Each structure stands twice: as C-alpha cells, then as structure tokens.
Amino acid sequence: MVADAKPPHGFVTRFAPSPTGLLHLGHAYSAIEAWNAAEDAGGTCLLRMEDTDTTRVRSEYEAAIYEDLSWLGLSWPKPIMRQSERHEAYTEALDHLAMLGVTYPCRCSRADIRAAITAPQEGDPQMVDQPMVYPGTCRSRSMADAGSGDAIRLNLESALRLLDGETLTWVETGPSHAGQHRLNPDEMRQVHGDVVLARRDIGTAAYHLAVVVDDAAQGVTHVIRGEDLFEATPIHRLLQALLELPVPVWHHHALVRDENGNRLAKRDNARAIRTYRDAGLTPSELTNLCSTLTKQAATLKQGN
Ligand code: GLU
Description:
Layout: E1 12-15, H1 25-40, E2 44-49, H2 59-71, E3 81-82, H3 87-100, E4 103-106, H4 110-116, E5 151-154, H5 156-163, E6 169-172, E7 179-182, H6 185-191, E8 196-198, H7 207-217, E9 222-226, H8 233-243, E10 249-253, H9 273-278, H10 283-303
Helix pairs in contact: 1-10, 7-8
Glutamic acid (GLU) binds near residues 16, 17, 211, 225 and 229.
C-alpha cells in the first residue's frame, strides 16, 4: 500500500489537487512554486490526489491533471498517494481522537445549522457561501451512539483543554505572514469552532483531517499552498498535536487573480491551463503569465 511506502528524506513538499475540475492558472502557479522550492532545496515534490469527494471527482479530471503537469515540465515520484485509498489511516486517526474524547457525532444538515445560528445572519444571502461556525447542537452526543448518517466533529473546547496550557507554535515562510505563529484559542473559536473531521455524505475524512494525516504519512516537511488556506493552519497544527504528528513549515503563496483582483474558480474554464495550451501558449509563457497576474494582484491589494 502507498501508505506503507517509506517517505523520502530531506526537504519534502507536495502538490495536492482535487480532481473535481480542470487545473487553472492558480494551480499552475502553486505547482510551480512547490516544484521550484523542492528543486532549490535539493528535495522532493510529491503529487497527491485529494479525491475523497466521490460526488464531484471525475477520472477525466485526474487524467487532465497528469497531462497538464507533465506539459509544464513537472514530474513526481510514483506511485502517488490517493486519498480515496486511505480510509484505514483516517479511521485510525479518528479512533485516536475519539479515544482522547475530542470528537462527537453530528447529524445536522447545513440548513439546520443555518437555522440555529442567531437572527442577524438569517436571510443574509452571503451566508450560503460563508463558512459557518457550528453552534454546537450535537455537542453533547457521545461517540458511542454515532451512526452511518453522522458526520464527526472536533470538540474544539475539549481539544484546547487537553493542551493543558501548552502553547502550540509553527513557522510560516510565505510573503504575507512570515514568522513564528502561535495558536490563538479565541480566534479558533470565532473562525473555526467544531470543524467537521469526517463527512456524513462521503463517510470518510474531511479535508482538515485527511491533509494532516497524509502530510505526516508522506514525510512532508514543507507545506506549500495558496494563501486561501492560511486560515486552516491552526486547525492543522492542533490536529497534529492531538495525533502526535510531526510539524512541518508552512509557506502560503500569493494567489493568481484575474485582472479585477478576483480569485479564479475551477468552473471558469477560460482560465484553465488547457485553454492556454490549446491557444498555443508555451509552458514558459504560461509560467510568466502566472507570475505577472500574481504581481498585479499584489499591487491591486496594496492599492486598496
Ligand atoms: N486539495 C486542496 C486544494 O485543491 C489543497 C490542500 C492543501 O494543499 O492543503 O485546494
């Protein structure tokens, strides 16, 4: 099994796309950042398929990822890790967290959660796309009565209590947040709350848990990814502490944005690597375009 393969030594990073659409310029930029960093450090960049969401994953998107990355001149050690084959590792991690008493089953739907959140937000159309801090409806439920229709959530308060005053720190080397960071419990309560660790619709690990378990299994020493995931880091750091996993260095790079400063979306095929390939751009022209757009976005941000 891939999970048992010996992780590489030295500097190890990874590119971890989800095959739920075509890769766009932002993915190209992220992949190039990761591969360049590995090359500069004489290390390795791994590829990991984050394909747990079976409702959205498609094999043709996975094939397109291999093709686009190869076209960019990138290569990776094989076999690659696929999250869809990692059920056992996630179950083991969930069992460990349950044993620590920091999880509970939750049967709330998104609509239930929205309804339970206090009045001022109700009717606010933006709520639909905003992450919602879970109000704790199911928090008193015990893991002993977890069923197949349940998601599993982290009990943040119990997890923080378990740290028993220990301060969790980590190092970030990305351009916007470089330095040493420390876990801020109040911020975690406001931003994250009791995050989902296993989703009821897919019956396996949700993003936060899968990433942390896999990075450790792959011996990842440097997590290089887009700035949009910067806020997820405290949750990852907390899970690493609870699961007694090694702590990597994080590097959140700037995002490629369109000319108006908006984030690129997978559904926007006009920005897909493929579209530029078909239009006759060379890999180095595409790389330059990514850098130009990222710099433009940084200038736009400064101007605001
Ligand atoms: N699969 C995530 C994405 O496509 C990346 C996860 C990570 O780098 O932590 O955005």
